[in-house]
């Protein structure tokens, strides 16, 4: 039998047909200030806003962001674009609970200090050195530069809410974590 | 000019060329017990393990999971597969700090109780009613069924660590959150 994927205790041997068409659509983070977050993710990571959805009765808005390369174009019609957005993979959803941007002492929990849980999102980049210069040019705060700490060639920066963003160059990590 | 994407305060008008090739590779969650988490994500959501990486000196392991449809096949060679994994989009990374699985009272924070931050991951599915039956067949705990609460046609379940997973059917949400 040809190589499939890795087997570890717990993994099913095959994929149940009941899961056909399931897609990992997004990961959601709450943000304090949408203007600040959109400025960061569009400027620094080149993300585009696929869709903003408002829920006035629940007093929140959702922002769905993605990298749009490979000529992907969302439909102009709003209903079609909403459906298209939910059919994608690997989107970043930002949730804004209205009013938090006006509370001076309001902040969200990044998941890396206690209590821990969520860790980070990660962008892979074609050239880590070039990306680090770009992040510095944009005054993005580093948690860890590629040559610091135990994990070489892995950088961590923070977004305006303090969430960690890992930045890696795949070709430089091919020997990582081998058994 | 043709429709591009949505403009909101903060969004740059265009994508900086310095971000070419950037990919949103993954979202990372810490898990207590890898066998339990892998059993859940492979059985219930049909995910495959692209790569496990071990860091003995730091006492943790990483598990990179993805849906593999559309005939995508990771390379068999381990180094190539690591690099291939980091070149994908929309992967789920699970981090296991060794030994937590043996601590009876150990658990991670889901981000939805205080202090809030990370919210959930989301799978889109072809048919929400069929997916709900599948989730029930697998005894997956619901936070919210599609007909409960303010957001109709949106389900939330929990994974074995208590992280929330949203489950949606894109075609049923096309009118959602319109201004």
Automatic annotation (TrEMBL), chains A, B:
**So, what pathway does this thing act in?**
Secondary metabolite metabolism; methylglyoxal degradation; (R)-lactate from methylglyoxal: step 1/2
Which cofactors is this protein said to need?
Ni(2+); Zn(2+)
Q: How is the cofactor bound?
A: Binds 1 zinc ion per subunit. In the homodimer, two zinc ions are bound between subunits.
Which InterPro entries does this entry report, sorted A to Z? Glyas_Bleomycin-R_OHBP_Dase (IPR029068), Glyas_Fos-R_dOase_dom (IPR004360), Glyoxalase_1 (IPR004361), Glyoxalase_1_CS (IPR018146), VOC_core (IPR037523)
What are the protein's UniProt keywords? Answer: Lyase, Metal-binding, Nickel, Zinc
Q: What is its EC number?
A: 4.4.1.5
Pfam families named in the record: Glyoxalase (PF00903)
Kindly list the GO molecular function terms attached to this UniProt entry. lactoylglutathione lyase activity; metal ion binding
Q: Where does Zn(2+) bind?
A: 93, 120, 166
Q: Where is the active site?
A: 166 (proton donor/acceptor)
Q: Where is the VOC domain?
A: 23-170
Give the family, as the similarity comment puts it.
Answer: Belongs to the glyoxalase I family.
Q: What is this protein called?
A: lactoylglutathione lyase
Q: Which organism is it from?
A: Ectothiorhodospira haloalkaliphila
Per the UniProt record, the lineage of the source organism begins with: Bacteria, Pseudomonadati, Pseudomonadota, Gammaproteobacteria, Chromatiales
């Amino acid at each position: 039998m040809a190589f499939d994927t890795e087997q570890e205790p717990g993994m099913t041997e095959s994929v149940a047909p009941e899961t056909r068409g399931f897609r990992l659509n997004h990961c959601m983070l709450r943000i304090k200030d949408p203007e600040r977050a959109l400025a960061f993710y569009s400027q620094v990571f080149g993300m585009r806003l696929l869709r903003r959805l408002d829920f006035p009765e629940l007093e929140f808005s959702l922002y769905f962001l993605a990298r749009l390369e490979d000529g992907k174009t969302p439909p102009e019609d709003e209903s079609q674009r909403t459906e298209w957005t939910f059919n994608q993979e690997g989107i970043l959803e930002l949730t804004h609970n209205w009013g938090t941007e006006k509370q001076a002492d309001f902040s969200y929990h990044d998941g890396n200090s206690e209590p821990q849980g969520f860790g980070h999102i990660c962008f892979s980049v074609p050239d880590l050195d070039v990306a680090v210069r770009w992040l510095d040019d944009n005054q993005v705060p580093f948690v860890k530069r590629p040559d610091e700490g135990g994990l070489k060639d892995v950088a961590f920066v923070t977004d305006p809410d303090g969430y960690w963003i890992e930045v890696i160059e795949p070709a430089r990590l091919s020997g990582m974590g081998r058994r």
